[in-house]
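Quick start: read one record
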Amino acid sequence: MNIKNIFCIVYNFFYEKRFHILIACFAVLLNWAGHTFVYENSYRFLTFDMVGTFVVAMTLGTIWALIAAIVTPIVLSGITSPHFIYLAVINMTGAIMWGWLAESGNLVIFNTKSKNKNSLIQTFFIACRFILFASILTGLIISLASSVIKNIIFRDAIFKQPYSIYFTELFKNIFDIDGASTLSLFANYVAETFIEIPNIIITVFVGCIISMTILKYNTLMFTQHYEYAVKNNNVSWFSICLSGISTVEFVIFVVSGYFYISTVKSVSNSILTGIMNDISVNSVHGFIFLEMISLPLTIIILLLFLKLILPDVKNKNVFDLNYLKRTILNRKEFDSDIIKFIIILFIISAAVVFVYLSITVNFTGITPIKYYQTNAASPANVSNFLWLIILIITFILIDKHNNDMTRDITLENELIKKQTVTEVADSFDTQRQKLQALELNWSQDTVELLRSSRHDLINELEKTKTGLNDLLFEVYEKIVKPYKDAILENQRNTGEHIEELGSGKLSEKTVSYIQENIKTQIAFYNSKLKPYINITFNDFNKNAEKFYCYSNRLIFVAVNNILDNSIFALQKLLLDDKFTAYLNVSLSLSNDNKNLKISVTDNAGGVSENNLNKLYRQQIESSKGKRLGEGTVHSAYFVNILNGKINASNIIHKDGGKGLQTNIFIPVYREE
């Protein structure tokens, strides 16, 4: 194998994850920039060296957040002070906590189930929940690690005493807590929370601005659709975490783990000689120290081990939600929700930080900035501008990717819309041409039909021109005209579909409006299908006038397509005299009263598992001939325009018969 082939293998190896790696590098540089800002400018009480970790956890998930969290201290220990290698524990604790919150659907911000904007009250409660989970809860967890690390490592004379330890000592003196008692350990933790929680609040706020402005197309975990996919499909966070480990992540983990071990060993032997000589697993301090510095490596080894021994976990939630990038995340409501969320998050964050900082300053009598200024903190190093340039270049690459994505999404949306409008327009033109032919040729066609009848009837009709005209007029009135009216009505409806689809116009409709229209559709079908097939209908079991949704006629086109497919499948089985067709349409509310569920259920035998996985996602072989059917794709597209969701599953009826159930979910709202 020559060098060229090796290079191609390595290139292809990482090409698939190129954007993930770019964001991870951007996160590490963000951590470095945040560290430079706080550590070299008298703001060491802040934890901006975790901003990038938060960003990558929100956009890529736990695995990449862990990678960024362990690489950051390795880089910082080589650039600034070696002791930052021990902060990998704190950084990785935040990565796991933020990754778990995001991937388990607990950080929902955006209403992606309708075209409604979040109200100020909704945004307020969303921001409060975000502060509670992503900031306060995470701060309480991180304080466990930081209180141990800072009270063991940073007490050494080599390092300048952190403000958190200074506050901890004052905290214990005020409450007269003995430094050697068990209560002292708890006091250290409580005091540490007063430092960490406001730090994390500010970190989360800055991270949110970066995530939702620079990386907005990677914030799918913030959406209601993601929460629905995870919680309603019972997808565990652990399965999402493991499914994120591919070959690329595996290699990066191994490499970063090796460098972490080497860095810890080098730092400990050079600057912590006294501590290392006294380390013993028989002592509490020694045991805690060894556990804390080995925790990141332990997590990595455990994850890789579980990935190897457990069966492959297939999690398609994020991939199935990629349509959000094409339809929802580039709409105006999304940008408006971002602005409102950031403003309200800033107000709440500032208020909570002010409370915590007031308590801290009241205990110490000195602000954190004043404390570090008295310790003569060194100014920022001019050479660090090189890293800022690298950070800017990385940002430009990400921004270019987002711009390319925006352009591709816009072009794709326009292409899909034009293709669909063209298909509907072609159908409209075909029907118009049929009507024109009918208007021009109906008398000639009728005469030809009559000439094929009995000879005596033809002779009788040709005796008088008036008699022939009268009969033809009667035939036209009773046979042709109803057909003509149906075509004209279909033309009108199709024209409205084209207008609504072209403009994307949605209007407020009550559930009763949808219910009555579906009833009318079913009555029409039943009048044509009796006595062979009877479609039953289950009414909405609540007051339909109190619920409304944003919809248009496309929902009825989608329901028609689904009914047509079921009817055609049932007609094939009617040749068996023992077979009794079953076709039911029902309307109901989801358990949370947020979605209208339209279910179409038949007993036509269902579909194969292979086609079931493709149904409503891509074209499959049509049951009406050797061609690719497009009706299900169009139905899914129409439902998607309404911000809805469509799925199908095979079911077994009480009599043992098999069938298919198709469910359409449309967001609904209740009048208060």
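The CA atoms of residues 104 and 237 lie 5 Å apart.
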